[in-house]
Amino acid sequence: MSSGAAMSLEAIRYRRGSLAILNQLLLPEQLRYEPVASVERAWEAIRAMEVRGAPAIALVGCLSLAVELAAGAGPTGDAAELETFVGERLRFVVTARPTAVNLGREAQRLRDFVRRRVRSPDVTAQGLRESIIEHIEGLLEKDRGDNRSIGAHGARHILQRVPEGGVTLLTHCNTGTLATAGYGTALGIVRALHGQGRLARVFCTETRPYNQGGRLTAFELLHDRIPATLIADSAAAAAMRDRGIQAVVVGADRVAASGDTANKIGTYQLAVAARHHGIPFYVAAPSSSCDPALPGGADIPIEERPGKELTHLQGLCLAAPGIDVWNPAFDVTPHDLITGGIVTEFGVFAPGELREALAERAAAGGQ
Q1: Could you say which of 151, 235, 340, 346 would form a disulfide bridge with 282 (CB–CB 3.0 to 4.6 Å)?
Q2: Catalytic residue numbers?
Q3: Which residue from 12, 82, 70 is spatially nearest to 38, judged by alpha carbons?
Q4: Same domain, 183 and 210
Q5: pTM attached to this predicted model
Q6: How far apart are CA 279 and CA 339, in angstroms?
Q7: Among candidates 361, 335, 359, 356, which has minimal Cα distance to 346?
Q8: Same domain, 96 and 159
């Protein structure tokens, strides 16, 4: 591991006109930040999983547009033409990966924002450009704040179940600093418990086939000196039985209206095992991951990744050449298996209550 591991750990580094991402394909051996100077480069980084995690994908996609605008890209003399340019760039970047809704949601919010601004009688192209950049920059701090709220709500809910002593958790994939603007969603709950001195240990799965748990989550937890144990994916049920797991906490890339959730492949089987062992199963996600337009989990598009991700690891062949491969990147956990609740920045909700609760927040201007 390079000496860079002692540096501040963050997935995204941004200042006006400049964006760099931590190349997560190189972790844990290298901690290297690479520039993203265009929407095309952001698309490539998202597609190749140099950056991943639904919130981070949304941020990088939007921030790459801010970088282009700060550099003077797009029409300069007409606000309506600039609106068209922004819409075209956003429509392109959202095609990078289909399952996570956050990028599409933020892109639509940005289009709506631009449309309202263009209708202002005194708007200029330069004024519109500046307001778009400021709007996008605000997403970074909002994500960090939302994550801390998720952590606080989730920790409080779990501690109501475990009023004394340390809590032992199990998590899957990577849902922390490397998947967000900072702090994390499911790992935000882990961090909140740790900060209160109430975390005994978190077990993290390796998360095959791309090993986000072993390469990324384990890296984060070691970096922050959080007590953690790495297990094979196939050891999760045994850990629930034999290692005192008191809650399972995972993230989500999309939450349907029914409360069904899509998350990294392997999540569904953890929910089944948790139900068998009577362990509460929590899903932690910002409201931007919720998609009330989709009735249920069967309607969530599931990305399928190249078979080589399963048959090879860093160039080493792990499987018989020529074997057929099915490699979905995500699976869907039915809402009735989410027994702990869905944790958002607004609180913890039963899956059946989430849609109405978020609609009330939106009507009150809280979303």
Answers
A1: 340
A2: 253
A3: 70
A4: yes
A5: 0.92
A6: 8
A7: 361
A8: no
